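Chain entry —
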Amino acid sequence: MISGDYIAGLTDGEGCFYVNIRPPDRKYQRSKVGIETHFYIKMREDELPLLKQIKNYFKCGAVYFQKEKRKNHSQCYRFEINSQKDIHEVLIPFFDKHPLRSKKKENFLIFRKIAMMIRNNLHREDRGLK
């Protein structure tokens, strides 16, 4: 069975906290800037069973095949949490309980702050967006 501390350590090395900013787009009828938070752990395809264990641990998220186009890289899979509800109710409390130990801790703290701003709709104001 996989532990929370193991997942935190794996995230220190292989995880990513990502904030996507989508500009307004008339084609897709988006009149406002969209901001989304994402978390993923990407590993070689032979580590798929481990990513499935992580998904089962969190009881949310999904595992995706990511086709690698770069010649010197192997095919891989990603475990991702994209749901804003799961980011707030599962992921952030998890890393509050199982803190990161590398420089990635700083990334998580920024990610956490942005996620809270989104939750409070502060990103809809010019000051919050900046």
